[in-house]
Amino acid sequence: MANKLTHLKELESESVYVLREVAAQFERPAILFSGGKDSIVVTHLAYKAFYPAKIPFPLVHIDTGHNFQETLDYRDALVQKLGVRLIVGSVQESIDTGRVKEEKGYNASRNRLQTTTLLDTIEKYKFDACIGGARRDEEKARAKERFFSHRDEFGQWNPKNQRPELWNIFNGKKNMGEHFRVFPISNWTEMDVWQYIYQEQIELPSIYFTHERRCFFRDGQWLAAEPCMKLKPDEEVVTQRVRCRTIGDISCTGLTLSEAHSLEEIIGEIAATRVTERGGRADDKRSETSMEDRKKEGYF
Amino acid sequence: MNTKGYLDMELLRFTTAGSVDDGKSTLIGRLLYDSKSIFEDQLEAVEEASRSRGNEEVNLALLTDGLRAEREQGITIDVAYRYFATPKRKFIIADTPGHIQYTRNMVTGASTADLAIILIDARNGVVEQTVRHTYIAVLLNIPHITVCVNKMDLIGFSEDQFEAIRKKYLEVLRKIGAHAEVNFIPISAKYGDNVVKDSDRIPWYRGGTLMHLLETVPIGHKSGEEGDPMRLPVQYVIRPISDKFPDYRGYAGRLASGALHIGERVRLLPSGLESHVKAIYQAEKAMESAFAPASVSVLLTDDIDISRGDFMVSVGQAQPQVSQSLQMMCCWFNEQEMQLNKRYLIRNTVSETVGVVKSVDYRVDINTLEHLEGVTSLKMNDIAQVTLRLAQPMVFDRYVENRTTGSVIFIDPDSFETVGAGMIVDG
After folding, report:
1. Shared-domain flag, residues B346 and B272
2. Per the CB < 8 Å rule, is A5 touching B294?
3. pLDDT tens digits for A195-252?
4. Which of A3, A198, A267 shows the shortest C-beta gap to B291?
5. Which residues of A touch B381 (CB under 8 A)?
6. Maximum average pLDDT range among A34-48, A57-71, B121-135, B241-255
7. Are residues B364 and B307 in the same domain?
8. Is A69 within 8 Å of A227 (Cβ atoms)?
């Protein structure tokens, strides 16, 4: 019988290879951990890449202050279990110290403000490689990303002048003050991520599964009625059975009406769905190229 | 798609070559659309973008052109990666621009591809860029080439014209000296003929659709077979230094080819030291054997000095070459011209050394396939055979034998940019 890896095994092997390259090529790498399924998978892959040693990177969480409590609880438990260091960059602190200004209006979001906090955190801890869970299938600007993505001294991405990336040879060389973003699961799709979580039986924050939540409907999607969300006069709060398909901060996480209790049920739902996962993300709907614009500034 | 089937799928990586005018983006859009890999919100976004540009029909090309500049200029600038799956396979498309100034992007996309789709506009037949794209596909040693003769609707689905293009193309292949397996499919990407669905407008064509080919083409070249020489470039040494694992030294890496077994006698290069495989791990899972392209951690029976960049090979098999001089086909990527005798960092798998180009043996005109001699520098997008001298010996295989251990990149020591790629011809 021919020696063939399944596609999930091949993807896992590629990601583990990328993570080991990061450990070998950089002095101060970190994992950007959002509490979402993608960064959870990246952290799981890092665990596998370096076992039985501990993950040789800290987890960095950029906290908008508008996070679901379930995500924070999950994060703290995971850090405890893995014995890794957690570093939190606070958007609230960036607002309080005047580094950024809070958006106003009903659709105000701290999503874009995170970029400043992220870049400040990178500078403070002198991280030279930030590992993220972004995938190329997520969004059209991300489809052009490299595994090792160079950032200039202002943290900016220059999509028109990226380093060519051939075979599996990664060039992480840089000048002082520059850094890299590294995306080990570039080649995974949303379905791959869910199937892998299922195959590896990876624990997830509870809000990925169906639960009752107070919600309201805006611009074609359900949002969580949390104190940080400002409701319009005609918006009504109702209790629905929902789950998150992606997790961002509360202001930009669309909720899916769902009865999915298990990973199998979630996979079934995703196989049948006709809307992309970022279709539920208000941050991407701002313009045709909003992701590219944010990424150029230094966003995740 | 049930969970069981999905967990058994294989992965096929392919690249597409052709210019915007050949309908490349339309073809990719068609593959995604007809395989139901496009979601409603993506389609709505493309419909709206098409309308705002005054296009009457939905422009499927907008699905793949992601950057602002690309959408504004209607061209693809950079390699874009696309994903779709059918119940049989998962696919990764490296979508690369076809313009001559983007040869480097095509080389990049081709470097990891198992199959290349070469698009030909049926009205124009085999043109200069067809030769260029084919040359690159062959140079990068892509195992399968599929020629899609597109816009068949515009030539009245003529079998004669299709046959003429096929003959002309086979001549080009002979001239290049290609060994790849080649298939020809008459299609209309715009209307979907022979892409995912069979066409009743091309009754004389008896082969399968492009999708059928993509789903069934053998992926036997990933080199994980028992007979293939085992190559494990050591990437990283795992040393937990904990109470539970006081003496653990795991040599971590991704198998570039072949299979590795417990008890096997292995040699480390370039040192030549030998030992036996004591254990093979993937995280906490102990394995009897592993094969390419798996990432593993290997424990040896002897405590020998091994570090990143060393090559683990099997003692009983064909050995890689170890040399300080290299002959290779090189594609230059940077606006800064390649200079003779300038120091570059040469990286092969995970090891790196300083090297200088001693001579350019010849440059290839990739439109006419002529070899030009007397060349002393290389411009961006040039392809040439060069001879290198290295500061330290490099362990490698010939590129035609192993795409992983036979490839290198050139890094500029001042800008740190990746300025070139090389495919090793010999030591």
Report:
1. no
2. yes
3. 999 999 999 999 999 999 999 998 888 898 888 888 888 889 999 999 988 887 888 7
4. A3
5. none
6. A34-48
7. no
8. no
Q: How far apart are CA A127 and CA A123, in angstroms?
A: 7
What is the DSSP secondary structure assignment for residue A186, as one 8-state letter? T
Domain spans, chain A: 7-192+288-297, 206-283
What pLDDT score was predicted for residue B291?
Answer: 93
The DSSP code for B102 is G
- Give CA–CA dist B47/B63, Å, rounded: 10
How many domains does chain B contain in total? Answer: 3
Under an 8 A CB cutoff, do B66 and A143 touch? Answer: yes
Q: Which CATH number is B290's domain given?
A: 2.40.30.10
Q: What is the largest CA-CA distance in chain A?
A: 66
Two structure tokens written together for B354: 């300083």
Tell whether B221 is covered by a domain.
Answer: no
- Helix, strand, coil percent content, chain B, rounded in steps of 5: 20, 35, 40
Q: Which residues on A lie below 8 Å from B42 (Cβ)?
A: 276
B64 vs A108, higher pLDDT: A108
Contact residues, A window 44-83, toward B, CB-based 8 Å cutoff: 47-54
Q: Which of B260, B287, B314 is the last residue of a domain?
A: B314
Q: Give yes or no: residues B393 and B305 share one domain.
A: no
From A281, which residue of chain B is nearest by alpha-carbon distance?
B41
What's the pLDDT score for residue A101? 87
Looking at the structure, do residues B203 and B282 belong to the same domain, yes or no?
A: no
Distance from the Cα of B125 to chain A's closest Cα (Å) equals: 30
Which residue among B85, B219, B404 places its CB closest to the CB of A168?
Answer: B404
Q: Let me know whether B158 and B22 are in one domain.
A: yes
Spell out the CATH class of A7-192+288-297.
alpha beta
- Whether B283 has its CB under 8 Å from any CB of chain A: the answer is yes
Locate the chain B residue with the closest alpha carbon to A199: B7
Number of residue pairs across A and B with CB atoms under 8 Å? 203
Distance (Å) from the alpha carbon of B333 to chain A's nearest alpha carbon:
8
Residues B236 and B142 in one domain: no
Low-confidence ranges of chain B (pLDDT < 70): 1-7, 19-20, 38-42, 56-77, 98-101, 220-223
Higher pLDDT, A20 or B191: A20
Cβ count near B21 (within 10 Å): 12
pLDDT at residue A274 greater than cutoff 50: yes
> Final residue of a domain: which of B216, B240, B260?
B216
CA dist A108 to A96, A103, A105, A286, Å?
Answer: 17, 5, 5, 12
Query: Which residues on chain A are in Cβ contact (under 8 Å) with B235?
Result: 17, 20-21, 24
* Residue B333 forms part of a structural domain: yes
Chain A residue numbers with beta carbons less than 8 Å from the beta carbon of B292 are: 3
Indicate yes or no: CB of B79 within 8 angstroms of CB of A144. yes
> Could you tell me which of B214, B137, B208, B225 has the C-alpha nearest to residue B179?
B137
CA angle B89, B95, B101 (to 5 degrees): 155
* Enclosing domain of residue B59: 3-216
| Co-location of B138 and B208 in the same domain | yes
Do B274 and B402 share a structural domain? no
Q: Which residues contact B129 (CB under 8 A, 6 or more apart)?
A: B18, B19, B98, B100, B367
Q: Which of B38, B90, B214, B343 to mutate to test the interface with A (most CBs of A within 10 A)?
A: B90
What confidence score (pLDDT) does residue B315 get? 95
Mind listing the pLDDT tens digit for each residue in B168-202?
A: 999 999 999 877 779 999 999 989 999 999 999 99
ipTM of this complex prediction, to 2 decimal places? 0.91
Within a domain: B117: yes
